[in-house]
Amino acid sequence: MLGLLGPAQAALAQQAAFIDSVRVLPAVRVEVERPRRFAVGTRVLTLDSAALASYRTATLADALAARTPLYLKNYGPGQLSSITMRGTSAQHTAVLWNGFNVMLPTLGQNDFALLPVSGATQVEVQPGPASALYGSGAIGGTVLLSSPVRWAQGLRGAAQADAGSFGLRAGSVEAGFSNTRLALRTSATYRTATNDFPYDEPGGARLRQTNAAFWQGSLAQDIAWRVGKAGQIQAAAWLTKADRHIQPAIGTQNDNARQLDQNSRLLLGYEHTTARHESSVRVAWFEDILNYRTNTFQSNSRVQTTQAQVSHTVRFSQATSLRVGAEAQHFAVRMTDYGGFVSENRFAGFALLRYDPTARLRLSATLRQAVLPGRRPPFTPVLGAEWQALATAQHELLLKASAARGYRAPTLNERYYQPGGDPNLQPETSQGYETGLTHNWHGPAHPALKLQTELTGYQQWIDNWVMWWPKPGQSFVSPRNLRQVRTQGLEASSGLRWHNKVSSMQARAAYAYTRAFKTRDAVESVVPTRRQLVYVPLHSAALSLDGTHRAWQAGSTLTFTGYRYTEDAGTNFLPSYLLLDAYVGYTWRQKAPAGAALTLLAQGRNLTNQSYQSYLYRAQPLRSAQLSLRVAWR
Amino acid sequence: MHLPSFLQRCASALAFGSLLLFTACDPDNEPDPVSEGRFTNVYVVNEGAYGTPNGSVSLYDKVSGKITSLNVFKAANGREMLADVAQSMTIAGDRGYIVANNNSKIVVVSLPDFKSVDTIKSTLSQPRYLVAASTDKAYVSEWIQVPYPSAVAGRVAVVDLKTNKVTKTVAVGRLPEEMLLVNGHLFVTNSGDNTVTVINTSTDAVETTLTVGANPASLVQGSDGRVWVLSNGDTDYTTPANSTKGSVSDFAPTAPYTVRRRDLNFTAGYGSRIRRNAKGTVFYLKTAEGVFRMAPTDASLPVTPFLKRNFYGLDVDPDSDVIYTGVALSYNGPGRMVTYQTGGLPLDSAEVGILPNGFAFY
User: What is the Cα–Cα distance from A267 to A285, expressed in whole angstroms?
Assistant: First the structure.
């Protein structure tokens, strides 16, 4: 839905059609069924390579914040960015890279500023509980990172250099090759900034930010190799590293905090696909290093995660397919705060059924049972249905509904941190429902006009919500199953596409109403009120407009983030803010060598010069600019 | 190109229209009144969230029994105090000194209007507590950061309250906390050690160092004239058996001091403190196991808590002996203050700021 024509691709207007169908497979081969096929009745936002084009050297935090109404709590440019989906906490969004959960196992969450966009070519966001499909943490939603294979593309490559305000420098080199049997993709990016931007101290002087510089790099390699008539080997590596000064809060003392994150992710898989059967075996090995230090404190951790997934899918007919599978995870941690070495195994079994009784009705039922040491999370089913209520030449109306249970296994910190870690902590559980409709309208062929509108309402209860709080008689904090939370909301979006022979345009508007409040709190003397949860904006919206005309491309994004309460109770809040970004670019296309193109792109951020805070007392830059030069050939 | 630019205009118009609509939905924050009188004011010191400058002072009015201003500095000055861990507040004459530990400054306000007067900042390092020897001179205990992993050193700064400048510093033990001034001697608890440093206030030089129980952090003078020190002890999280118990030490306020030390039967824990009633005939020991009550004349230390509740802060009103306690409900949300009669009956309760840690009476 977010398949927007991005600036650099835009000049290659003839590619536009191709971008919409990334999985082009020769007719003789059967496509592997992605887990999303079993997520009927839910909503999926897709940011494809075109939508991600202005963020090639940036991070997922930047792309999601500008292109979706999702709110990311951001501690400053390049700093910690944690997500909240449908009113839940950062630990309630699962992030999967090629089907494997890449959360930091110690904290049980992801810093989206540590996920460079270049690591994947497609980003999908599926709001809502879907633990049966995606495992632990898929309560508020799931972010799926993948790089769908594009066969028979030949050799292609690109190099880009960026320079911008506050010492921003970035660069990328990408290369790819594919024929009908082998596909390779390599992408290397780096990004650095001094971030000595001016900001306003509340009621005080204009100061310059200190201790906010960072360097980060990413190297991604994907290989797909077809073996024989039905086999396919998949291998992927994603190495990221970030060395960040930690931006201190406004008005506090700089304690020279610095954090090094180094994440290595390796994956190897084999898939055997025939007309009726599909078998898959995949293994992954991750290493996450997080070393944090200040003038007076130091904490080092190294987690190694080994994971394996096996599954078998049977296609009984065009209308029915069933997948059963199992997965295992082994965590090995060396961490200062655990008092040494800790290891743990987790297992899960799942069954996914997709059944389309008629051409207009699609159903799915999925189940998962996880096994954790000492604890058994509940059985987590997801049921979904989609019904095509109307289908004419110009209109299509789709009605959707789904119901799900979700769970979140305790993180390693929650189990082993000293002091306080509790090996007997209960998993968090949730149950939720959603329903919605999608309307597609296809306008006259010339000019080609398409309008898609989607409306979704949901409700969810999350129980055993963990908070760190002292147990009675303890002077230190422990994770405790203290809260029950209810979330409910509405998501509306509308996208318009239009193009003719020399121009194209895409406009999109998305809005989210999110209500989240505690219904129980076990802390002594705390009486739950229905006040909105901390850092969950009631209203958020994102608008974007992208257009091309001959060799020109231009666009703009506008995001609105409503006020957010900043404390667990009471009335203190951060005011709402509106951010306007825009870009303009021009592409020179070379006749020989064929396919070579040079693009110059200028981007402006926070054009209205808003002084705002995403997270309390963390300064954000005022207006800033970035210039990119990109050479591409294919 | 007419269509895109038209739509762009529409989009911006729509967006700015919604901004007005939505900001109008932001809640209102109305300023609270500030007290004009005295003898009725209780200032509640709220630490705020660590690493965030939202430490605050709430004003409780003893007459109406209500919090009249949740954030009295903001109400009086129209801006934030920007205190990262508001650790303590000391009143000397008509000045209030709010010690912001983690951003190394002391905010000076005039009382009772709470108008900002000055900020003592230069050369202060992680100040903890301020003791005024007169309206002209004060002592501030400080933590001195040294590169990891060495232990944090300690220092006492001598501050000229006329100029609000540090005039001298005196090296003391590690992690110095509360101080007590008796008969020309300043007693400094070194909570990172098991010592109390004695500073002669006529020379501002260290006279001697006394050995007390492990991790002393607060002290009072009893009606018997002796100095009573509560030592926290220490919890060993990995091997609980290796934990050190809390203790109470007492000594005469003049040389040769002669320390008597007695152990409690539990670890009092970080944040413990000893407070006294107006006459010094009753002590309250706030610990992780609750609040214990004792008299300086008691033959042995108490074993049963007087209030079995874990408080974040505790002070006693010198005018009424009413016990003021701070209750933490969250590390990132309002806490409560609860007052108790001398007999232990709860009197009143009100919502205050984040992590209510102490009280100052004016």
Answer: 6
Q: Choose among B51, B288, B330: nearest Cβ to A252.
A: B51
Q: How far is B246 from chain A (nearest CA, A)?
A: 13
User: How large is the ipTM?
Assistant: 0.87
**Cβ contacts (< 8 Å) between B332 and chain A: which residues?**
534, 566-568
pLDDT tens-digit series, residues B220-265: 999 999 999 999 999 887 777 888 999 999 999 999 999 999 999 9
pLDDT at A272: 96
Do A107 and A413 touch, CB atoms closer than 8 A? yes
pLDDT for A447 equals: 67
A positions 465-484 inside 8 Å of B (CB):
468-470, 472-477
A205 touching B, CB under 8 A?
A: no
Cβ–Cβ gap B336/A562 under 8 Å? no
Question: Is residue B345 less than 8 Å (CB to CB) from chain A?
Answer: no
pLDDT tens-digit series, residues A510-523: 999 999 999 999 88
Q: Do B334 and A541 touch (CB under 8 A)?
A: no
* A199 touching chain B per CB within 8 A: no
Instruction: For residue A526, give the nearest of B80, B289, B329 by CB distance.
Output: B329
Backbone φ and ψ for A600, nearest 5 degrees, come out as: -110, 125
pTM of the model: 0.90
Neighbours of B255 (CB within 10 A): 10
Q: A519 and chain B: CB distance < 8 Å anywhere?
A: no
Question: Mean pLDDT over residues A97-118, rounded?
Answer: 96
- DSSP state for residue A52 in the 8-state scheme: T
pLDDT of A167-201, one tens digit each? 999 999 999 999 999 999 999 999 999 999 999 88
The answer to whether the CB atoms of A578 and B152 lie below 8 A apart is no
| Arithmetic mean of pLDDT, B176-199 | 97
The answer to whether residue A17 scores a pLDDT higher than 50 is no
In this prediction, residue A51 carries a pLDDT of: 79
Rounded to the nearest angstrom, the gap between the alpha carbon of residue A28 and the centroid of all alpha carbons in its chain is: 33
Cβ of residue B14 closer than 8 Å to a chain A Cβ? yes
Q: Give contacts of B104 with chain A, Cβ < 8 Å.
A: 253
CB distance A219 to A238 below 8 Å: yes
Using CA coordinates, name the residue in chain A closest to B125: A253
Q: How confident is the model at residue A448 (pLDDT cuts 50, 70, 90)?
A: confident
The pLDDT value recorded for residue A5 is: 31
Residue count of chain A, please give it. 634
Q: What token pair was written down for A531?
A: 């006040």
| Nearest chain A residue to B15, by CA | A558
How many CA atoms within 13 Å lie on the side-chain side of A110?
29
Contact across the interface for A617 and B53, Cβ inside 8 Å: yes
| The two structure tokens encoding residue B65 | 């029994």
A300 — pLDDT class (breaks 50, 70, 90): very high
